[in-house]
Amino acid sequence: MNFWCFHPGVFNYIGKLFPDFLKDNITNIKSEFFIPIIAEKFIKDGGTIQVIPTTSQWFGVTYKEDATSVKSSIDKLIFEKEYPKNLW
Is residue 49 within 8 Å of 39, Cβ to Cβ? Predict the structure, then answer.
């Protein structure tokens, strides 16, 4: 699983790419503006991307049936004080 974090300046770069994406895909309702493709183009244009390793385990909700186990995982992280009880 990848977790992408970007500096807010990335939106200026994406804004330059998006018109061409629309032109090429305007009739394809299933087309997607994929982050990895944007990242690859960014690198080809001279940008750099930093990989930050972690030992944390990923868990996420793909299906509604996943919600219970994800809630339990978050509750455990809160109990262990690795995650704040009140995020906002």
Answer: yes
